[in-house]
Recover the amino acids of this structure.
């Protein structure tokens, strides 16, 4: 794939980025050892939840809620109508465009873009070539922010930190958005440069979300006699299993589910597997999206 121009305005017109990019107050740290994705992913045999010595932040009731919510998202994505689902879908198709955030008709709703540049693939994913992803400066990184009101009434920054490349969306670590808002902005970011039908992978990089990280590190891995910090092996959690549904029911899983529901007609796509691994001590995740054959729509 040919390299895109060095800079793009977010309305799609070409521009020239400054020689020195905007100051990044939360510059991502460099790491040491890239992960190599294996052709044959290891299989694991889970133990029942009630056999676990659960982390204090997790309860069997919480895990049951994760499983139920993950089941809902799996069903909503798979079936065009709610008749096959336990409850009606709560996510509508997204029509948000990046232009509406950067140049809104009302300045009160404007987001400030403070990083807008073409970069290489994140080190956390290792070699992108086995996924047929680009290897050069073909990844558009965007940081935008907008002041919002906290629960206590104080002001705080809502932030989107992400990058996109052909077939992939990456959520960088310091993301301070609720799941539905992140999903819509990430989709809009991707659609500035690529056709949404080309999307195959959603990466959640350097996971800091407490709920998802605690579940993976303290429940999911110990259940399968694994340790997240024990190595860089990639683990696969397959579609329509309890492990898969529980991940989908956590905060980050639901956000990815909302992106798929917002981007594609229901019943046309499937999140076929979720991959997890650690890189430089941090949890990384990849959600793989496949198009369903026409006879399964």
């Amino acid at each position: 794939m040919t390299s895109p121009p060095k800079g793009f305005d977010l309305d799609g017109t070409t521009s020239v980025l400054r020689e020195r990019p905007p100051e990044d107050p939360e510059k991502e740290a460099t790491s040491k050892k890239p992960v190599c994705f294996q052709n044959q992913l290891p299989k694991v045999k889970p133990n029942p939840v009630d056999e676990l010595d659960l982390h204090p932040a997790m309860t069997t009731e919480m895990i049951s809620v994760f499983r139920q919510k993950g089941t809902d998202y799996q069903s909503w994505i798979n079936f065009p109508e709610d008749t096959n689902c336990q409850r009606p879908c709560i996510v509508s198709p997204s029509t948000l465009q990046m232009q509406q955030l950067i140049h809104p008709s009302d300045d009160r709703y404007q987001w400030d873009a403070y990083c807008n540049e073409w970069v290489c693939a994140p080190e956390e994913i290792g070699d992108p070539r086995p996924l047929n992803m680009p290897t050069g400066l073909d990844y558009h990184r965007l940081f935008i922010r907008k002041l919002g009101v906290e629960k206590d009434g104080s002001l705080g920054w809502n932030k989107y930190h992400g990058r996109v490349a052909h077939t992939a969306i990456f959520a960088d670590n310091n993301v301070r958005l609720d799941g539905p808002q992140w999903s819509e902005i990430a989709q809009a970011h991707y659609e500035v440069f690529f056709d949404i039908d080309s999307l195959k992978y959603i990466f959640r990089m350097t996971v800091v979300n407490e709920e998802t990280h605690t579940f993976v590190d303290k429940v999911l891995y110990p259940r399968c006699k694994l340790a997240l910090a024990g190595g860089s092996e990639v683990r696969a959690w397959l579609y329509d299993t309890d492990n898969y549904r529980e991940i989908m029911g956590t905060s980050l899983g639901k956000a990815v589910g909302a992106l798929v529901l917002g981007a594609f007609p229901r019943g046309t796509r499937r999140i076929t597997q979720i991959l997890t691994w650690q890189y430089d001590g941090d949890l990384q995740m990849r959600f793989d999206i496949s198009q369903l054959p026409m006879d399964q729509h």
Summary: The helical segments are 60-78, 98-102, 179-193, 210-223, 242-248, 251-263. DSSP finds six helices and ten strands in the chain.
